[in-house]
Amino acid sequence: MKKIFKILFKLFIGFMLVSVLSVAIYTVINPPFTPLMFFRTFEYLFEGEPVQIDKDWMSYDEIDKKIIRALVAAEDARFMTHEGFDWRAIKAARRYNERMDGKKKRGASTITMQTAKNTFLWHGRNYVRKALEAYFTVLIEAVWGKKRILEVYVNIIEWGNGVYGANAAAQAYFGHDASKLTKQEAALLAAVVPNPRRWSPATPTRYILRRANWIKGRMNSVAIPKD
Predict the structure, then answer these.
(1) Phi and psi at residue 163, in whole multiples of 5°?
(2) Number of domains in the chain
(3) β-bridge partners, 54
(4) Is the pLDDT reported for residue 57 higher than 90?
(5) Whole-number pLDDT of residue 106
(6) Residues 79 and 187: beta-carbon distance below 8 Å
(7) Is 1 domain-assigned?
(8) Radius of gyration, CA atoms only, the chain
(9) 17 in a structural domain
(10) Sign of the CA dihedral running 179, 198, 76, 184
(11) What is the mean pLDDT of residues 201-226?
């Protein structure tokens, strides 16, 4: 029993060291790959499709702030005021899900939580992954800060088959880089984030157009970090 405890303790300490070191490294080095990119690569290979990873990192200072505002407005309007978890949104989602009785789920993931998941973890709904997501959420809030979280987030989001990050998405769908996005383009990009392999900002459905208009109406009211 003692040997098992020692092994588990060493594994725990090892995980803590590796996770803290990884977060610290990504403070100054941009993540070259994410778990989702690896998963998609194997998915394409398994399905016999050409492997495509289109990403082009752009710094927070270079990227047009309209896409930052659009993402915050769409995904996490209280991003600048919470410390990783939006407890108001979590309580509201819980009440909604109880009322719907499992028919339709509403999430309450903040941008920090999404960044933690996209950067360090696999996608899934089990409790282990959720616990690790919470751990990395606290860690990156403490180490990175809001500006770096947004910079990483906007550069690793999946925006279609093989398209990752706002700059690659702007080039793929609108023919220019993310420093030249219009308000409408930024809102359309943000509108498809919940399901980017189903929806396209280049050929938006009526629902996406309505969602983009809703996002545009909120963009000027949300706070974001300064350059």
Answers:
(1) -105, 125
(2) 1
(3) 163
(4) yes
(5) 64
(6) no
(7) no
(8) 18
(9) no
(10) positive
(11) 96
Which pLDDT does position 146 carry in this prediction? 97
Q: Which CATH number fits the domain that encloses residue 184?
A: 1.10.3810.10
- Which helix (H) or strand (E) segment holds residue 52: the answer is none
Which domain, by its residues, includes 48?
30-219
State pLDDT tens for residues 71-126: 999 999 999 999 999 999 888 878 877 776 656 666 779 999 999 999 999 887 78
CB within 8 Å of 12: residues ≥ 6 apart: none
158 vs 38: CA distance, rounded Å: 12
Q: Is the dihedral of CA 226, 155, 182, 192 positive or negative?
A: negative
Q: Write down the pLDDT at residue 100.
A: 67
Rounded-to-integer distance, Cα 227 and Cα 208, Å: 29
Q: Is residue 108 included in any domain, yes or no? A: yes
- Where b means 16+ CB within 10 Å and e means fewer, 150-164 reads bbbbbbbbbbbebbb
Task: Please give the mean pLDDT across all residues of the chain.
Answer: 91
